[in-house]
Amino acid sequence: MEFGTQMLAQTMKQHIRSFSNDFRWIPELHNKNTLDIAWNIQYDRRPQGLLIRGDLTERFLGNQHLNQGIRQTVDVPRFHSHATLSYNPGTYGQIKHFYGLGVLNKRIRLRSDRSLISSSGDFHPDVNINPNNMDWKSDKVYLKGSYHYKQPSWEVDISLPLAWQRTRYADSALFSEKEDAGLLFEPHLRIKWELAAGNRLEFQYSRQNDFGSFTSVYQGPLLLNYRSIRKGNLELQHTRYQSAHLNYRYNNPVVLLFAYIKTG
Q1: Average pLDDT over residues 136-145
Q2: Which sequence spans correspond to the domains of the chain?
Q3: Residue from 86, 206, 209 nearest 138 by CA
Q4: 3-state DSSP assignment of residue 26
Q5: pTM for this model (two decimals)
């Protein structure tokens, strides 16, 4: 992207490198039940260079009038791995049940640097900011049991996952390190009733945990463009919340009643 006037010129360059692979195998056991083995891997890297020249750089640089522009480099390689092993034993009585084991790993690195352009055209490190040198690691191991029970006029789905998760990030430039680890229980319940004349009532409840992402915790400021700067706060945000949904579908495509409740 490149644009300019007499007062401003901005150039942004980005190189995209990515790789992904999906593996899945569903063998049948001697008892006719099945295993489902899956593994997804993703790697993404998009190094970016941003160059800003012109009078607007004074908004970022204050009274450093000898500087004629800013050059910023950002690199955020990301690795994601999700492996699952699922077992479907079929139906026990009137209840269908399903069990799963999963391992989820995420690795993210954030590297950024910023230089100032002097009136002579030379590049000098910007000593007024801290460069980013952050590593983000998230690991999760979970067991999940899912159950389905159905009657002619109603049905129930219950999922009972139990997980251990650890999220850790560190910035060697700032000598900072944070970690959050513990057991998580995130149940999900869905009940559906088929009413008269094809009307339907459905209720859903779930409890979840959110550990945020690396975009909210890095400390060094990043230029998004010639007008915007973004900066994190180095605090890991662990949010626990519950949600409930109640839907009533009337046998009329125009009429729908919906309610939603969410608590933290």
Answers
A1: 95
A2: 2-263
A3: 209
A4: coil
A5: 0.78
